[in-house]
Amino acid sequence: xxxxxxxxxxxxVNYAVLRExxxxxxxxGTKLQRLVTEPLSFEVNSFDPYMRMGWSVVIEGxxxxxxxxxxxxxxxxxxxxxxxxxxxxxxxxPRTITGRRITAEFPTR
Length: 109
Known about the structure:
Blueprint: E1 15-18, E2 21-26, H1 30-35, E3 40-48, E4 53-66, H2 68-72, E5 88-103
Antiparallel strand pairs: 1-2, 2-5, 3-4, 4-5
């Protein structure tokens, strides 16, 4: 996320995949307001140092505040780091998805 005259606003989140979209929780306030009113980039990476391989995926799209009813219909295994009593569901609908595989060569001797 980025605002006027600001750089990207990066926020670590717990997320789940729900029917070709990303869902997460957010407390009410500035972060939630920006999540649902501005284009959003969402990045997920994984790397296995033993196998020296991984992947990186970037999803760009628009998010909206989803209702509890819309999300609770599904069995989502999402455990936030903080128990946010008043938190809201955010659903990111992808416009584009790009990714790449990451491999590192083993050193030769």
